[in-house]
Design goal:
Alpha-Beta Plaits; 3 helices; 39% strand; 4-stranded antiparallel sheet; alpha+beta
């Protein structure tokens, strides 16, 4: 099924605990239908002109595109990083039943 309007949002966090707090808030406030937490990813990046390396957790957030601004706002309010990674990838195809579930779980207040 071709899908429009659904996203997988990638968010790195400084720790599993921080990721869990953010995931709880996203799902609890219906900004996301599901968040997978992948602990202990190794990240290499440039920050303020220097090469850095960090052990982080990675969140895979399933949501609707129209909720992305709210996801960003919530994550920024809870995140320990000055500039948190919050990037969205469109879901171009998906199981219709799964996408209907994402819609349902993020539509109610």
């Amino acid at each position: 099924m071709a899908a429009t309007g659904y996203l997988v949002v990638l968010i790195t966090t400084a720790s599993y605990e921080e990721g869990r707090r953010i995931a709880d808030a996203l799902v609890g406030q219906r900004k996301a239908a599901c968040v997978n937490i992948i602990p202990k990813v190794n990240s290499l990046f440039r920050w303020k002109g220097k090469m850095e390396e960090a052990e982080e957790s990675l969140l895979l957030v399933k949501t609707r595109a129209e909720l992305f601004p709210e996801v960003v706002s919530l994550v920024r309010s809870m995140h320990s990083y000055e500039v948190p990674e919050i990037v969205a990838l469109p879901i171009v195809q998906g199981n219709p039943a799964y996408l209907a579930w994402v819609e349902e779980e993020t539509s109610r207040e």
